[in-house]
Amino acid sequence: GQQLNQSPQSMFIQEGEDVSMNCTSSSIFNTWLWYKQDPGEGPVLLIALYKAGELTSNGRLTAQFGITRKDSFLNISASIPSDVGIYFCAGPIQGAQKLVFGQGTRLTINP
Amino acid sequence: DSGVTQTPKHLITATGQRVTLRCSPRSGDLSVYWYQQSLDQGLQFLIQYYNGEERAKGNILERFSAQQFPDLHSELNLSSLELGDSALYFCASSVARWDYNEQFFGPGTRLTVL
């Protein structure tokens, strides 16, 4: 079935550093979604990408829809303590009304 | 605050028992989705209801069932519980029948099976 692989699984960085994470699949996705989950909370949608090659920003966050449609990237610039959490990529499965999620990238920031 | 409410926030029970998790969608949302998140795992889609009818099914076990009531709140019933059922269970809602980019998630119910 369609699966999403995220890397890295976890990141430990210093405040102020830039962050990059990615999501890959063996299958083509027509939409890529990036969510953030704070501890004890449900996921919140950060960015949605609908077109191959698309580059979209949301404040300090920038996400790209890979040209092959099999990958997506999320970058966070100048990280701050509130960026701590788990970042998930997700995409809708073709022909089915359901989302598949990656296993997440856990971001920890040292002050 | 997403506007989606879930109760209870925490639930501790024993193997073999049955529990019911409750979700109230955002005002005006007709679709409710249930997800399971095990420790350090991504979210696994379980089931979706739209305006009272089941619309899509994911990896939901036969021991699990759900329903959506006329007032649009939904319940997820988990029976014959096993240790491996311990997880966070999230409910999400959206206005339309299939809005993959407009699903608003509740805070979740943490289920611990001892």
Q: What does this entry show, briefly?
A:
The complex is a heterodimer of chains A (about 110) and B (about 110). With about 110 residues, chain A is mainly β. Helices cover about 0% and strands about 55% of the residues of chain A.
Evaluate the radius of gyration of chain B. Answer: 13 Å
Treating each run of at least 4 consecutive H or I residues as one helix, how many helices of chain A? Answer: 0
C-alpha geometry of chain B:
globular
Largest sheet of chain A: 6 strands, mixed
Number of helices of chain B: 0
* Unreliable parts of chain A: none
Query: How much β-strand is present in the residues of chain B?
Result: over 45%
**Helical percentage of chain A:** under 10%
Which value, in Å, is the CA radius of gyration of chain A? Answer: 13 Å
DSSP helix fraction of chain B: under 10%
Order of helix and strand elements from N to C terminus of chain A? EEEEEEEEEEE
Q: DSSP strand (E) fraction of chain A? A: over 45%
Q: Report low-confidence residues of chain B grouped into runs of 5 or more.
A: none
Structural class of chain B: mainly beta
User: What's the overall geometry of chain A?
Assistant: globular
Largest interface: A-B, 23 and 24 residues
Structural class designation of chain A? mainly beta
Write down the overall mean pLDDT of chain A.
92
Straight-line distance between termini of chain B: 31 Å
Fill in the keyword field for this structure:
heterodimer, A: 111 residues, mainly beta, 6-stranded mixed sheet, 11 strands, 0% helix, 54% strand, B: 114 residues, 7-stranded mixed sheet, 4-stranded antiparallel sheet
Overview of the molecule:
The complex is a heterodimer of chains A (111) and B (114). Chain A is an all-beta fold and 111 residues long. Chain A has no helices and eleven strands. Chain B contains no helices and eleven strands. The A-B interface holds A 4, 31, 33, 40-45, 48, 88, 90, 92, 96-104, 106 and B 2, 4, 40-45, 48, 55-56, 58, 90, 92, 97-98, 100-103, 105-108.
